[in-house]
Design brief:
Layout lengths: L28 H12 L3 E6 L3 E4 L3 E3 L3 E5 L4 E6 L10 H10 L3 E5 L1 H4 L4 H9 L8 H14 L1 E3 H5 L8 H10 L3 E3 L10 E4 L15 E4 L9
Parallel strand pairs: 2-10, 5-6
Antiparallel strand pairs: 1-4, 2-3, 4-5, 7-9, 8-9
């Protein structure tokens, strides 16, 4: 199986995401891994830099790092930190404030991002992001999935007849967002693969209020 070991990496200019309009800021490798997960999640159609400031009574303010737009238009604010102690308020309090502003909330930490088998499956798929899939193999793989709906990875790969390994070809199409691979199971012959037919939305297409003030005394510092 031909793969590339080139992964999106955090730099001063941030990291790329095919679901974003340009590079997004990443404070660490965790941020780049999170953006890779977003790229491979078919439920997420757009990712943008966080543009919503949650302001709490007592002068506490917090702007989550990212905003995700889900299929159907729901907005999710997201933070990526080494652990929850890096946040300025309890996780549930931030989630409550986000809900008051009309958003969901998602927290990813080093522990959740590196959890198995999702982390290894993500890395294996992402390692194929630079594999070039020929027109014939591309059409045959997508046609097989269109007909079946969902196929085990080994069956989807068998549709490829070109020079590129069939498994690598399917995973490369997952990196392009044309097919979806189950991230929550170890990558193997029976891993489910399905067709993704919709087109990714433009990042930032759904706007939200820039600031929401919540009168929640439980967000005040203690001690």
């Amino acid at each position: 199986m031909t793969t590339s070991n080139s992964f999106p990496s955090p730099t001063r200019r941030g990291a790329p995401s095919r679901k974003a309009a340009g590079r997004l800021p990443t404070a660490s490798r965790l941020g780049a891994d999170f953006l890779t997960l977003c790229d491979l999640d078919p439920e997420i159609v757009a990712v943008s830099r966080g543009d919503v400031t949650l302001e709490f009574t007592g002068g506490i303010g917090h702007q989550p790092a990212y905003r995700l737009v889900l299929e159907g238009g729901a907005s999710i604010l997201a933070d990526v930190v080494p652990d929850a102690s890096a946040l300025p308020a309890p996780t549930q309090a931030i989630a409550d404030a986000a809900a008051a502003a009309g958003h969901g909330y998602r927290l990813e930490t080093a522990a959740t991002l590196r959890a198995e088998p999702r982390f290894t499956t993500m890395r294996l798929i992402a390692s194929c992001r630079r594999v070039r899939v020929g027109a014939g193999d591309r059409v045959r793989i997508l046609a097989a999935l269109d007909e079946a709906g969902t196929l085990p990875l080994i069956e989807a790969a068998s549709a490829a007849r070109g020079a590129v390994d069939g498994v690598a070809a399917v995973l490369a199409l997952a990196c392009e967002g044309l097919v979806a691979v189950d991230l929550d199971a170890p990558l193997g012959p029976e891993t489910p693969v399905r067709r993704v037919s919709r087109i990714c939305a433009i990042a930032g297409a759904v706007r939200a209020p820039s600031a929401i003030t919540t009168d929640r005394r439980d967000l005040l510092p203690t001690g």
